[in-house]
Amino acid sequence: MNKATIASQISKVLTRIDAAARQASRPIEDITLIAVSKTKPASDIEAAAACGLKHFGENYLQEALEKIETLRTLDLTWHFIGPIQSNKTRPIAEHFDWVHSVDRLKIAQRLNDQRPAKRNPLNICLQVNISNEDSKSGVSADEAPELAKVMAALPNIRLRGLMAIPKPSDDPAEQATAFEAVATLFHTLRRTIPELDTLSMGMSQDLEAAIGAGSTMVRIGTDIFGARNRS
């Protein structure tokens, strides 16, 4: 995608975020836009960074590591948002700033143990399967409190909050119900882990409902970079 098109798409997304924030009576500064750049070339990320975006989300480790190296001179914040295999935790711990898709204590412990001492604690979101879909990763809402408590005590990671990908729906009311369930769980966890500050939820098709429910990070790919490239 050319630079002008990416710039135009980013402007449209920011307009949507601003409108949703106003509707929810929230300051737009409370919402971070993560540009999901999986399968897209480093040149697209450069174009988005030139428009002021700093946060980029990647799903596929090897592809992401190549981009991180290529763009190392840019001041970017890298978010890993894909499923995590145990044998891939070390490079994730070494190269990323955020991980949104932690759903097992084993993965949290490995990320903690493998985080380089010279780097700040790794920011973590606990992924919750709020719609209880068999095809989705994430812990159940019932399992989340105990896992969050243990994760919050690990010294080299910093549990920031929750991530969720609810069951797709074109119905704004259904979208809102799912996101509000995540937000309710988040506020319950904050009673015992008050430092939690992040709700990573909302994508291209449902960012308005997510922001209305309190999302602090929306993950937007298609509406910035176009449809995912197919191999």
Give a brief rundown of this model.
The protein has 231 residues and is α/β, with parallel strands linked by helices. The protein has helices at residues 3-23, 42-50, 61-70, 89-95, 105-114, 144-152, 172-190, 207-213, 222-225, and strands at 32-36, 55-58, 77-80, 98-102, 122-128, 157-164, 198-200, 217-220.
CATH class: Alpha Beta
**Under CATH, the topology is which?**
TIM Barrel
Query: Count of DSSP helices?
Result: 9
Tell me the structural class: alpha/beta
How does the major sheet shape up? Answer: 8 strands, parallel
Helix content: 40-55%
- H/E series: HEHEHEHEHEHEHEHEH
Q: In the CATH hierarchy, what is the architecture at level 2? A: Alpha-Beta Barrel
- Domains (count): 1
User: Widest sheet: strand order?
Assistant: 7-6-5-4-3-2-1-8
Low-confidence stretches: none
The span between the termini is: 16 Å
Shape: globular
Annotation, overall tally of beta strands: 8
The average pLDDT value, as a whole number, equals 95
CATH superfamily: Alanine racemase
Can you characterise this structure?
The protein has 231 residues and is an alpha/beta fold. It has a single domain (3-225), classed as Alanine racemase (TIM Barrel). It contains nine helices and eight strands. Strands 7-6-5-4-3-2-1-8 form an eight-stranded parallel sheet. α2 (42-50) links the parallel β1 (32-36) and β2 (55-58). α4 packs across α5 and α7 (172-190) packs parallel to α8 (207-213). The longest helix has 21 residues, at 3-23. It is globular.
